[in-house]
Amino acid sequence: MPELPEVETVMRGLAPSMEGAVIAKAQINRPDLRWPFPDRMSERLTGQRVERLRRRSKYILADLASGETLLIHLGMSGRMLVSGDPLGQFVHDHPQAEKHDHVVLDMDNGARITFNDPRRFGAMDLLDTATAEDSKLLAVLGPEPLGNQFSENYLTAAFKGKNTPVKSALLDQGIIAGLGNIYVCETLHRAGISPKRKAGQIAGRKVATLVPIIREVLSDAIEAGGSSLKDFRSAGGELGYFQHRFDVYDREGAPCKRDGCDGVVARIVQSGRSSFYCPRCQR
C-alpha cells in the first residue's frame, strides 16, 4: 500500500500536467473500484479546470473550478500515469489502452492521465470542496506529519496513557495522517525505540524526539521518489529508490546499520503486520 512519500511523489508528478489545465474528456471504463464511482462522474469532470492538486494523508485531492474536489486513493496496485505531456517530462506518445485502465482523463494541454489498477482496491470520489475536510474519509485523520500542527507537544499528549505498542500508535491515522508500516519501522530504528514498547510508557522527552525523526524519514523518502517494493511507480512510470536505503524494513537477519551496533535485524508480527527492528539497539 503506497504511503505518504509515494502519494506525495505521484501528486508532484501529476501537477505539471494537471494544475491549471482543463479536463477535455473524462472516460470512465467501469462502474466502480473499491466502491462505486459517483453519479455522472464523467459529465461532472469533463470541462472542469483543475485549480489545485494537494495531498491529505494517502489521498490525492484535485480541486476543480466547479467547486468539487476529485479524491483519489491508489489502493494496493493503483497507478496514475502521465503520457503526452507537452512539457516534455514524460513519454510523448499515448500508450495503447490496457485492460485495467479504469479512468482516463484527457487534458486540454495534450496530456493524458490514466488510472490503472489491476486489483481494484483504489478509489475515486467527488466531494464538495468547501466541506471536503468534513467528509467521512478525511474528518477522522490526524495532523499531517510534515505540517505545523504536528509538534512535540501534540505527540506527547497523544501518547499519554496509551497502552498500545508505539508501532500501533504511530500507524493510527487518527493520531498521525499518512504514516504506514515501512516508515514507522524506519522511524523507530532511527529513534532507538522498540516497536514493542507501550506508547504511554515512553518518556515524554523520548516521544518528542520522534517528531523530527518522522519528518526526516519522510523527507528522505520523498527525495528518493518513495519506495518501490511491488507495484509502485511515479506518474512518469519510474521506480522509487528509498528501498535501497532501508535500515531495517525487509532486512530480517541482516546486520544492523547503526554505527557501533553488532545486532541483527529481527522480524515480529504486530496486529497482522511485520515489524522489523534491531533488538540490540532499539529498547
**Strand neighbour order, sheet with most strands:** 1-6-7-5
Rg, Cα atoms, Å:
20 Å
Structural class category: alpha+beta
Averaged pLDDT, please?
A: 90
The topology string of helices and strands comes to HEHEEEEEEEHHHHEE
* Secondary structure tally: strands: 10
The shape is elongated
* Cα separation of the termini: 28 Å
Number of helices: 6
Instruction: Please indicate the percent range of residues in DSSP E strands (runs of 2 or more).
Output: 15-25%
Q: Ranges with pLDDT <50 over ≥5 residues? A: 228-234
Short description:
This protein has 283 residues and is an alpha+beta fold. It has helices at 4-18, 41-45, 152-159, 166-171, 181-191, 204-223; strands at residues 23-28, 50-56, 59-64, 68-73, 79-83, 101-107, 112-116, 123-128, 266-270, 273-277.
Report on the structure:
The chain has 283 residues and is an alpha+beta fold. 23% of the residues lie in helices and 20% in strands. The chain is built from six helices and ten strands. Helix 5 (181-191) packs across helix 6. It starts with a helix and ends in a 6-residue tail after the last strand. The relative contact order is 0.15.
Summarize this structure as a short list of keywords or feature phrases.
alpha+beta, four-stranded antiparallel beta sheet, 10 strands
